[in-house]
Write a structure and sequence with these properties.
The structure holds two protein chains of two kinds. Chain A is mostly beta strands. Chain A is 0% helix and 52% strand. Classes of the chains: A mainly beta, B mainly beta.
Chain lengths: 110, 110
Amino acid sequence: QKEVEQNSGPLSVPEGAIASLNCTYSDRGSQSFFWYRQYSGKSPELIMSIYSNGDKEDGRFTAQLNKASQYVSLLIRDSQPSDSATYLCAPYTGRRALTFGSGTRLQVQP
Amino acid sequence: DVKVTQSSRYLVKRTGEKVFLECVQDMDHENMFWYRQDPGLGLRLIYFSYDVKMKEKGDIPEGYSVSREKKERFSLILESASTNQTSMYLCASSNGYEAFFGQGTRLTVV
């Protein structure tokens, strides 16, 4: 079983819709969770962090965490073509280094 | 803002050459990391360092070494470059949780 699993996509949504990106992780000791956005040919950029169960909202982004189910998700409301990118999930397991999922590619259709 | 700077954006090297990739961060972070990213394989950890002169192997250290003589600088060394080391190399630094990335070095070994 992979440490971090994400559907590779592409996930295609129309402009203005809600994009839902999902991630499951295997290490029950994971305490902190991060979402990165990576545009093609660029490096990953941190966009959200979440540390406790429930929802955390930041602008059009909402991160959701369910530690019992070992599940974390990212919702993007009012999706824009500029949101088209690969989104990487990264739980912090205390190894000192983040372990990244392979990412979900999101395409927002104008 | 955290700034992580990698010395080169693009590099082309010949098989068998010794290659140095340099990374500098300006936020006094203790932890620094080298990842490589390949299509379909995601981000894989090569080496990381949690203090000056301290290093630990990541998931794929073979063919690489690192050097950290100063807190702000972390170098990745390819002892004898091979074509299977053609990849995007990403340096990151961390305060212990979320990581911040440099712009990446796309290395081609011919």
